Amino acid sequence: MSPPPRVLLLGARGRVGREVARALAPWAEVLTAGRAPADHVALDLGRTESVGAALDRAACAVVVNAAGYVAVDRAESEPEAAHALNARAPAALAEACARRGALFVHVGSDYVFDGALGRPCREVDTPRPLGVYGRTKWEGEQAVLRSSGPHLVVRTSWVFARGAEGFLAAFERALAGPGPLRAVEDQRGSPTWARSFAEALATILERLRGVGPRGDLDPGALSGLYHVACAGGASWLELATELKALLRSETPVQGVPRALLPQPAARPPDSRLDCSRLAQVFGVRLPAWQEALRACYASLP
């Protein structure tokens, strides 16, 4: 029996990274890269000159980049830090993977869009980011898509998970108090459970020749951009209302326009993702976000 494929995972302690490690564990040897003592491979993404040596030490068939600068508002005052992690680091990783024949998988963001289309965004739609975070994520995606090696850019949206900081934890805290919980009513996205995203990614990788145990698809021929998000769309108000019902909270939920909750970074008013290409190419469909939210709370953190 051949040994399991090695996957190097960056951002293993984030919402997405934790679930990716879990989803790949049944058939892959997952190594983590980062600056924590527990990481298998030491790697500082702020020092891109060290990327090649880290990949040589790992000797992996696949590199999954779930790391990045995700503080959307703080990025407005720290553009260089956001650019370093969201643009320069993916470019260096993609180039290093191409030189070594490794598949590079990069997690992208719905915030590359301006949200003005009035419909779910497709992979062929032109990104028009509104802020530093979205712009640096778009620059990173473009660098990966220009890579000469096999690569996948997997965009997702409004990722949630239990036991982690983020909007779900903030909503939980508000719903445990007297309220009201004020939630934006005129911004829409595709809420996506981190586990649903990770399981979809694992299914994709399983099918790639030289990567997963099924190996019936050529990764080079399928390189490119895919949207990976739960089905349906929601506003923050709709998401908060669904969570209120799920938690059986008595706290009132109040919808407010974005203009009444100003933030340093502009958000796209409608960044829902159309995932038709994912279904057509890989036969992968994620559950509706409401179903995923219920499954999230029925599972262990």
The helix content, as a percent range, equals 25-40%
Tally of discrete structural domains: 1
Mean pLDDT: 95
Radius of gyration: 19 Å
State the CATH superfamily name.
NAD(P)-binding Rossmann-like Domain
The number of helical elements comes to 9
What would CATH call the architecture?
Answer: 3-Layer(aba) Sandwich
Instruction: Give the strand content.
Output: 15-25%
Number of strands: 13
Give the helices and strands as they follow along the chain.
EHEEHEHEHEEHEEEHEEHEHH
Largest sheet features: 7 strands, parallel
The structure class reads alpha/beta
The general outline is globular
- Unreliable residue stretches: none
Distance between the termini: 34 Å
Explained architecture:
There is one protein chain. The chain contains 9 helices and 13 strands. The chain has 301 residues and is of the alpha/beta class. A 7-stranded parallel β-sheet has the order 3-2-1-4-5-6-11, with helices on both faces. It has a two-stranded parallel sheet with strand order 7-10. Strands 8-13 form a two-stranded parallel ribbon. Strand 5, helix 4 and strand 6 form a beta-alpha-beta unit. Helix 3 packs parallel to helix 4 (132-145) and helix 7 packs parallel to helix 9 (289-298).
